[in-house]
Amino acid sequence: MNTLLKVIVRFHFLLIFIILETISLSLFISEDINKKNVVYSSANVVSGYFYNKINNWRSYFILAKENEDLRAENLKLKNDIQIIEKNKDNKSFQKSDSLQYPYIAAKVINNTVYKGKNYMTIDKGKLDGVDKDCGIIGNEGIVGVVAAVSNRYALVVSLLNERLALSAKIKKNNYFGTLKWNADDYRFAEFTEIPNHTNINIGDTVVSSGFSAIFPEGINLGVIYKVETSESNNFYDLKVKLSTDFKSIRNVYVIKNLQRKEQINLENLAEDEY
Length: 274
Description:
This protein is an alpha+beta fold. It has helices at about 1-10, 10-30, 35-85, 260-274; strands spanning about 105-110, 115-120, 135, 140-150, 155-160, 165-170, 175-180, 190, 205-210, 220-230, 235-240, 250-255. The radius of gyration is 28 Å and the shape is elongated.
């Protein structure tokens, strides 16, 4: 269908010329003035219709191309910003050594939000550099973690999965805890392990803590929506409104920690030795 549309767009002037020439020929054959007026009117309607359709088709292809160009530019900017942030205090750095978390653009092609254990599928896999345990983020924040990969696709454990727990922190004071979905409303998650002597307000921003080998520090997770003090311990019961709308998520980025193996191996060694 796309091929047919492209052919029509490419040769639309020729098609309109043929149609109008056919109509003009009928004018010479007919000597009835009224019939000529009808034909002229019909010609205007037909040509207007085709011009409108052609403009719509042309706009469709142009917008699709512009959207892909914008995503590519956004991806480049994300990578460039990461390099600048990491090396802003280092005047003698090598660019090739500076990008710890490169981004890979992807699209969500399957997604669930109403199950206890929700997953999504993206259109990038091993051939694109995606590995198990890569992070997935969107324009608004963290989306999930890669659970399995094939050559061309990856299965993602969504943040809306009761088995997934993320290390998170309050952005303004760096107090960290665990963010986890409670299998209830896809818009909210629970944030635990924050001591109740901490100054917490509704609307405070919650971000990734950086205490994992998956996500860097400071990626959006949401904002504090509800604050309750637990009677059984010295910690808050916090409810977070997630920054990502999982019902409409389409474009995402795979975030890959190039130093993950080194970090994991060292931490495992420490656990074995001490």
